[in-house]
Amino acid sequence: MKGEERALILGCGYVGQAVGRSLKNAGIPITAVVRTQARIRDLEGFCQKVYCSSEINPALFGTLVEENNLVIVTVAPKTRDDYFTTYLETAELFHKCSPSQPKHLIYTSSTSVYGDQGGKWVDEASPLLGSSEQAKILIQTEGVYSALKAPWKVTLLRLAEIYGPGRTLEQKIAKMGGATLAGSGTAYTNMVDLSDIVGAILYAKEHGLEGIYNLADDDHQTRAHLYQKLAKQYGYPEVFFDQKEERLFRGSKRVSNRKIKSAGYTLQMPKRN
Predict the structure, then answer these.
(1) Residues 103, 74, 6, CA angle at the centre, nearest 5°?
(2) What pTM was estimated for this model as a whole?
(3) Using 50, 70 and 90 to split pLDDT, how confident is the model at 243?
(4) What share of the chain is helix, strand, coil (3-state, %, to 5)?
(5) Residue (of 197, 209, 190, 202) closest to 122 by Cα position
């Protein structure tokens, strides 16, 4: 019953807040865990309880898990050096819990785990070739969540590059206009709108999806083509690429969203405006 549902959100930033507000609108009480005390005030409008991560010890964490039947993990690191503590250590906390009731855990991972696939299409069964230290930690983290046993039900959503309100494509190109970026610009883009992240999380909850699902839109233009189009569309200077410089977006792949569509989810933003 919806009236009996209670949700715990770990990491209530850009994605977590959007999910939390949608759940609150559906009448589901929210408990949130955030990194800093400064964030607590931002969340008091839609969360019943908000904790700073520095307050969380194993006993309290176990209590919070027990009190909520839906757990959504949307943690994000502050810097590249925070990946281990943000992702892997958080995941390991769940193996120290012994919930007495069924729990559904939804974790937002990243399509960066696929690494460089030479422009090929990748799906959830593709090899994970992410070679950076950050990607390796994300791969390990997925393994930790996937190893959880009953009463856990686990959904892993591999998110493509995120855009949406406050992170629009126009804002992106406004910052880049006239710049020369490293690389050739021939790598394919894989993106997803915030509305579809929220939508897919709610869909996974409602339909009890388990396992791994990619979450990307249908649009896979090369980075050079996309930036050129955006610059023209919004009236900003053209973006250039320099192959002599090290690429910011390493590797190329096209992320298939066929599995989550086959599960019944319909993208709200299949194409980028």
Answers:
(1) 35
(2) 0.95
(3) confident
(4) 40, 20, 40
(5) 190
